Amino acid sequence: MDNSQKELLELAHAQMPFGKYKNQYLIDLPEFYVVWFKNKGFPSGKLGQQLQLIYELKLNGLEPMLRDLRSGFRKP
After folding, report:
1. What burial class does residue 50 get, using C-beta atoms within 10 Å of its C-beta: 0-12 exposed, 13-18 middle, 19+ buried?
2. Predicted local distance difference test score (pLDDT) of residue 57
């Protein structure tokens, strides 16, 4: 498994670490919440990068791909 595949698998298992949606998978966050971050500014660091990717996946309708990946592979 190469680095990008590992990162995608990690993203599939990533959870929100704080707030109202704490412990919810990032891909399962409501779209309006992810758009709010896009407009307000993503947090710095790894979480911000992951939320930016989640935004792009949601924008392009690719949520099922990440959910399928999560259900097919255990957390790395």
Report:
1. buried
2. 95
